[in-house]
Every structure is written in C-alpha cells, then in structure tokens.
Amino acid sequence: MTYVSSEKGAPTPLGPADTDWEMGVESRSQLRAAVGRFVRKPSAMVALVVFVGIILFCYIYPLFYRWDWQSIDTRRNAQGHYIYLSTAPGVGGHPLGTDGSGFDLLARMMRGTQRDFIIVVIVTAMSVVFGVVLGAVAGYFGNITDNLVMRFVDVMLSIPALVILIVVANTFRSLSGSAAGLAFILGIFGWMGLARLVRANFLQLKEREFVEASHAMGAGTWRIIGRHLIPNSLGTILVFGTLTAAVAIIAETSLTYLGYGVRPPDTSLGQLVSAGVQAESTRWWLFYPPGLLILIIVLAVNMIGDGIRNAFDPKHNRVRD
Amino acid sequence: MLVFTIRRLVGTVLVLLVVSFITFVFTASTYDPLAPYRARNPQPPPEFFAQKTKEFHLDQPVLTRYWNWLTHLVNFDWHGWYPTLSFNFGTSVGGTSVSSDISSRLGVTTKMIIGAIILAALLAIILGVISGVRHDKPFDFAVTILTFILIALPTFWFAALLKQGAVALNDNVFHRQYFFTIGTESPAAQFTMSGNELFWDRMRHLILPVLSLGLLTASGWIRYQRASTIDVLDSDYMRLARAKGVRNRTVIRRHGLRNALIPLVTVMAIDIGALFGGAIITEKVYVWNAMGSYLNDALTNQDTYAVIGWVMVSALFVIIFNLIADLLYAALDPRIRLS
Hints:
The complex is a heterodimer.
Chain A: E1 2-5, E2 11-14, E3 21-22, E4 25-26, H1 30-39, H2 42-60, H3 105-141, H4 143-158, H5 161-171, H6 173-176, H7 179-188, H8 192-205, H9 209-216, H10 221-232, H11 234-258, H12 269-277, H13 284-312
Helix pairs in contact in A: 1-13, 2-3, 2-13, 3-4, 3-7, 3-8, 3-11, 3-12, 9-10, 11-12, 11-13, 12-13
Chain B: H1 2-30, H2 35-38, H3 46-55, H4 62-71, E1 74-79, E2 82-87, H5 98-133, H6 138-152, H7 155-174, H8 189-192, H9 195-233, H10 236-244, H11 248-278, H12 280-286, H13 291-301, H14 304-332
Antiparallel strand pairs in B: 1-2
C-alpha cells in the first residue's frame, strides 16, 4: 500500500481502486466544471431563473386564473351593449386589458407562451438530433460521405422554408394550422448550421490522440462517436441549441405575420403581436406587452446560451465574451 | 484557388439542378392556379378552363413540364459581336414574363439591401472593434445591451416601433411629412417630380426600411466582430508587438485591425446572400414591391413558374455569396489552404 501525504501532514492510504483522489483533492469531470462556471455567472443564472419562471407561470397560473384563453367577457350594461371589449389594463378585472373580441389579454398571452414553448422544444430537439447525426457522419467518415452530406446541406439551404411550408399546408390541411405542424417544418429546416459546426469539430477532433488510443484499444466507430467525440463537442451543440430556440420563436412570429403558422382560434405569441401591430397607437396594451414578452423570453434564452458558451470555453482563463 | 473555384462552380450547377428539380416537382404536383376560378359562382365556361389548362401546361405530366422548362431555361444569343445570356423562367399566372418581373423586383430589393449593408457594416466595424478593444468597460456594456435587445426583437415589431417614432417626429419636430412609412416613392412621383426632388423623395422613402433592416443585421455582426477582436487582441503576435515597445494604439491599428476584420467579412458575405431572398418581413411592413412580396404573391396564386424562377434566383445568390465568402477567407488569411 502506498502512502501519500495530504495537506494536513498525516499520511493517507491510497488504495488501488481509489482513483478519484489524487494529491488529496477530488477530481472533477469536465461537465461538473462547466456547470460550476455557469452557476457562478450572474447574468446566465438570472436569465435561467427568468426563463423557467415565465414557463412555469404560463403553465400553472391559468389553473387559478379567472379568465380562460377562450372565454369572452360577455358582461353587458343596462342597455345590452358589451362593455368589456377593447378595455384598457385594470378595467373590469382584466389586468392587461382585452382585445376587440373580448378575450382577456393575459390569458391569451399565457396560452401563446405555452404554444411557443411546445414549438421551441420540438424545433430544438429535431434540429439538434438531425444536426448532430448528420454532422457526426460527415465529419467522422469523410471523403464521399462528407461530400454527399455537405451537398445535401447546400440543397436544403437553397430551398426556402416558406415554399415547402406552403406546399405542406396545402396538402396536409389538418396539420398546417397547429403548433406541432409549424414546429415540424421549422425543425426540418433548422439543422443545417449545427451539421456544419459538428462536422468541423469532428474533423479536428478525430485527429487527436485520445481517438487514436480508443481505436487502438478496439473501440467501435459508434462508441468513439458517442462516448468521445460528441461529449467533446457538447459546448458547441448546447450553444447552437439555445440559438435555435431563440431563432425558432422569432421565425414563428415572422411566419405568423405573413399569414402562415398558428391560426385562430388557437393563439401564439406571433398571433398576438401580428394582431397588435395595427393597434399600436390606439390600443397600446395590445402592442407592447406581447412584444415585450417575446423580447424577454428570447433575451433570456440568448443569455443562457452565452452562459453555456462561457462555461464550456476550454481556455476559460482567457478574456471572456 | 482556381481549381477550387471551378470545382465549386460545377458543384453549384449540380446543386441548382437538384434544387430546381425538388422545388418544381413539389410545387407543380400540388399547385392548382385555377382553384379561384373553380370557386366562383357561376363558374366560367368549360372552354375557359380548357384554354387556361393549355396555357399553364397543366395537362402535361410533371416531369415533361420540368424537362420543357429546363431545356428552355438558358438562351445564348449573339448580338452582333458580343454574346448575351438570358434566362427564360416561363410565364406567370398573370401572363407576364417571370424573368422580367423578377429583374425589376431585384432592382428594388438591391436598393434596400445596399443601404442596409452599408449601415450595418459601418456600425459593425466601428462599434464592434471599439467594443472589443474596451471590453467590460461602460461603452462595451451599453453596446452589448443594445445588441442583445436588437437580436431578441421580432422584425416587424421593431419596424412598427420605428414607424411609430417616425410619425411622432413628423408631427412634433418637422410639422410635415418628412419620413415616409410606405412605398419606394410618392405616388406617381416619377411623372410629377424630376431630378433632385425625385432623388430626395426616394431617399426619404428609403430611410426607415434601411434603418430597420440595417440595425437588425448589424446587431449580429457587432457581436461577432467584438468576439473576433477580443480573440485577436489576446494573440501572441500582438503581445510581442506590445513587448517590443510599440504603443497600444499603433499595435491595434497596424496588426490587430486587419486580422480582426477577416472573420466578419465572411459572415457578411453569407448574410448578404441570404438577404436577397430574405427581407420579406421588412418589405411587407413598409409595403415595398420587392423579391419577398413577389414570392408571397406567387405562393398565394399557386404559380409554379414564378415560384421556381424566384427560388432559382434566390438560390443562385445564396450559393454565389457563400463561394465569395470562402474565397475571401482564403485570400485574406494566407494560413488557410482551400481543399
């Protein structure tokens, strides 16, 4: 048994299985180090809290809220006229006012955030899965496979998503107006950037010694890709994931503004903002709150991405972004 | 580099062929431009449908239509002593030639894009470099907050905000319509105004679209330029120059600036290529009849030849500018060897 002195001077037994203790200090994996760096950056943590808080609020509060996203305020006055259409915030129990049909704006915003969250999750998952798989295959196998995949990426980049979206909307009418259908289309067109980044990373990484060592020890292709190359590209993948999430929200608002995307009666944040654009000078509460909500959500996602990029920066003693 | 360019150009032609095939087959098999006529009550007579079907080639199978389109695509002519190349994308649903429509729309788009790119490039280089040199100082914090907010805004929300601000300025400061929020020029301006007056009318219609498109493009570029400047400032050759005794400002000017600007140039080239087909939201907000609205109209009218013409032109710009970006990167950085 070998004895190693710890800092306090007393000898510590170092057994054959005790490989986590070297020089009396516990070793930390790269992931734990990155998580530690993320947690210590105030802007990233605040953004994470804000983002999670908004999502939880929009899923939980409607259960306690007086107005449902589909319920119209049908209260009339003595003459029989509807009195709660297009009312300002604070009037009649509507904290953010109502729109022209009598829907409560806060309820619609919460429902819109729920739809957008589903869209973001589906788009990010699809983009990350396709991007990583195709980028890994192109980067690891090289030559003809690489050429084919990159030409495929070029083709996908050249076809505008709008054209395919309309074609799908025409042929699959039931799918087109829903959040899941829109998310599917955005996901199919969102993976190209990640494929390029992962391929570039893999082209560099596969020349490294630890890959050679794994190969020499008999590791199969997929084991090398899954256990060594992908975890080393995790920073790039996570940053791109958050970027895709932010872009997905903005893309959803743009597509809805053009008329394609989530259709009434179902609402989304894009719907709310598009409808509010016309009302900006007369009914400001329809224009500014949904826009500000989108701004805050996308800002939070971007700050989280920034924090992740900082956390995974291997030269973390360099000047940070 | 010449071999690389030639190989990429050949690859470009192949990619364009595949894109055209996929888009044509997708659109031709699902589009029905006669649907609005069928929905009318009473319906037009059957002879009308027969004539329109022949005119839009709807009676032919999709692959035959694609082959006819492909073989009539490029016309090579001799005009006396110089050759000309013209593209024939077919006729649109309205009966006009798609290629002449697209070329006029392209002119309008180019006007908006050139202004936006100049603004965005100036902002990106100036603010990005200063922000990178003085990182973590107050100027950097202000610019960072501004760019983060600009990146997070929906395009049309920001454009509507700008319109609101411009109208407020018109009312309170200028007391006349100085900023125009709609269109490329005042109605019938080219017949009623001339020379200087016409030029300034068009300029004042150009300000708001250029401002909204330029600021939103600049936000991404500023972040990128700042990161690349910080990278360059920390490199070994800069430390050596400072250790030699050269003043910091001279070091940055002589050695750092050139290297810091290289990555931005490639990102700019790629984004410019994407802008030619991608400014559709800005065009809709300011009601400009440019490339984006052409695609929107073509999709609404279910016009196969207009859509495929648009996709070809837009894809060509994207691919050419990607190639320019790669070539520029190799030309500006001697360490890069093109494979």
